[in-house]
Structure prediction request, 132 residues.
Amino acid sequence: MGLKTTRPGGIGRKEDLSIAKNFLTEDELHVMNRVVSAYLEFAELQALNRKPMTMGEWVTKLDEFLKLAGRELLDHAGKVSAESAKTRAEQEYERYPKRVDAEPRAVDPVFELTAKRLQALPRPKKPGSAKR
Prediction:
């Protein structure tokens, strides 16, 4: 499905597919969190200085901030629509349980080892077959 981050236990849920940050690597997510935190600090300074700004001004300031931080600006809508990306991810999600079920789980090796040990044990005699 393309998810890079999942909930504890590594289980992806359908609701997670539409959250863009779930497709970022851990390093990319860490950088994004730092950029957002830095920009929010700037916004808080503007508020503390009681500097009124329109939404358009905020967009301009954000672009300037991202350029200053050496980040690439997204100046187009991309090649894939959000709707088609979501549809594709949901199609992959439908195949996800089958793929996960086919993968070995942590319990499988232990189960297989135990089964081999049980097979190696001597077979118990059937009741009544012992000579008296």
In short: The chain is about 55% helix and 0% strand.
